[in-house]
Amino acid sequence: MNQGGVATTNGGSGSGSVGVQIHQSRRLPDFLQSVNLKYVKLGYHYLISNLLTLCFIPLIAVISIEVSQMNLDDLRQLWVHLQYNLASIIICSAILVFGLTVYIMTRPRPVYLVDYSCYRALDHLKAPYGRFMEHSKLTGDFDESSLEFQRKILERSGLGEETYVPKAMHNIPPTPSMAAAREEAEEVMFGALDILFHNTNVKPKDIGILVVNCSLFNPTPSLSAMIVNKYKLRGNIRSFNLGGMGCSAGVIAVDLAKDMLQVHRNTYAVVVSTENITQNWYFGNKKSMLIPNCLFRVGGSAVLLSNKSKDRMRAKYKLIHVVRTHRGADDKAFRCVYQEQDDAGKTGVSLSKDLMAIAGGALKTNITTLGPLVLPISEQLLFFTTLVVKKLFNAGIKPYIPDFKLAFDHFCIHAGGRAVIDELEKNLQLLPIHVEASRMTLHRFGNTSSSSIWYELAYIEAKGRMRKRNRVWQIAFGSGFKCNSAVWEALRNVKSSSNGPWEDCIDSYPVKITT
């Protein structure tokens, strides 16, 4: 549990001072006010690092065009000329072989997303508003001010009546325990993996890399070991367990799997993203620690990645870019999402009033780095020209904010909270349809932490909107503080896989969310 959820803290509270903090922290900073040149340079550094590939491909194209325009007499004269220039032939051949070797050795191996799945809990775990508030009152842990605060947060959160909380939280009183937390983790992870293996016909023994991320529940043996044991994965599997990395850890896990797929040939990688609610419910009255109770819900995803060339034909997407931003060197950013004990000794996750401003700074850094990699040349020139003029002449002009709608067809913005989505829609100048998947995911499933971006992608597919060569931007925020982006390209017209999370309700969406 971590970051984006606090966006909904524009809700009122029982305390006037808390209400002021919420009002101050709601909005993201205006991206038009300042753009740091060093992050633009970082983006261009990523671009230039692939310069050899960018130059080599046009060179081949030019040579191919020239050869296609030659007739038989031209080819005969060329052959006669080369017969008497053995040294030229050797030199040209050596250069060609060297260039091809360098290109093949240095180019990154493509990473394909074969398929993914999202877990959907059973109906008896649904937590409508009324039941949520009734159970909160019956626990006896919350005073009237805290109950009223939670009610207002729920009303303005953007969550619907069909989100899920774990079984232990349905009991009165709640029964959080290590055993219950393990049970929740197993149901979510194994549920998603069973669907994934069924849909892809991949045998668990074929998996060479396993990455699991869960922020707040890290038992021994680890969650990744639980999966290895359940599916009897092979003994030489490269397994990783990421903890404490927040709602953006799903993108981090994909990035780690991508790097591993560059090293280990001809294999599959599985990425499992989830969060555990059972042992991380807050039973105190500190309002900054009550917000996660209202927003975070049960959910998880499993993603199958491959570097096998034969999988391109059946894969849904190809990974294009991953850009990661970490603001942990700044003390305020480091502590803005912080697990701690309150004055009564009760553990929870505290959300700082500065969170929205910190998230905005991280987002600005991330998109400034991402821009040169994805934006059309026209947008890059406009952006870079206005930026240089402002830096060199201290002109009173605002930097040009590129139109990311020209770079991406679909947006999967982490469903951390309603106000986060509102502010990103405004600052990135998106249309309502671009944030529809995020809003509907928040409404139907709540904040499922790092897996939310996969529920959103599933929504787009279920609506039949994903077309070949469409580009998707997944963007997520996490404690630390981090902002991470992943860019995917559709390899075909993508349809929703069987047993998808929206399978029986997609026709009911979108719904109108009242303010």
Task: Briefly characterize the structure.
Residues 409-489 form the Beta-ketoacyl-[acyl-carrier-protein] synthase III C-terminal domain. This protein has 18 helices and eleven strands. With 515 residues, it is an alpha/beta fold.
Description of the molecule:
The chain is α/β, with parallel strands linked by helices. It has a single domain (112-492), classed as 3-Layer(aba) Sandwich (Peroxisomal Thiolase, Chain A, domain 1), CATH 3.40.47.10. 45% of the residues lie in helices and 14% in strands. The chain contains 18 helices and eleven strands. The chain has helices spanning 16-25, 37-48, 51-68, 72-83, 86-106, 129-139, 144-156, 167-170, 178-200, 223-231, 249-263, 287-295, 331-335, 355-374, 377-393, 418-427, 436-445, 452-462; strands at residues 112-118, 207-213, 238-242, 268-274, 300-306, 317-326, 337-341, 347-351, 410-413, 471-478, 482-490. It has a nine-stranded mixed β-sheet with strand order 3-2-4-5-1-6-11-10-9, sandwiched between helices. The chain is globular. The two termini are 25 Å apart. Mean pLDDT is 86; it is low at 1-25. Residues 409-489 form the Beta-ketoacyl-[acyl-carrier-protein] synthase III C-terminal domain. It is found in: Membrane. The active site is at residues 247, 326, 410, 414, 443, 447.
* Secondary-structure content class: alpha/beta
Instruction: Return the domain count.
Output: 1
Shape, principal axes of CA atoms: globular
Amount of beta strand: 5-15%
Q: Whole-number radius of gyration?
A: 25 Å
Number of helices: 18
Number of strands: 11
Largest sheet: 9 strands, mixed
| Assigned CATH superfamily | Thiolase/Chalcone synthase
CATH architecture: 3-Layer(aba) Sandwich
CATH top level assignment: Alpha Beta
CATH topology: Peroxisomal Thiolase, Chain A, domain 1
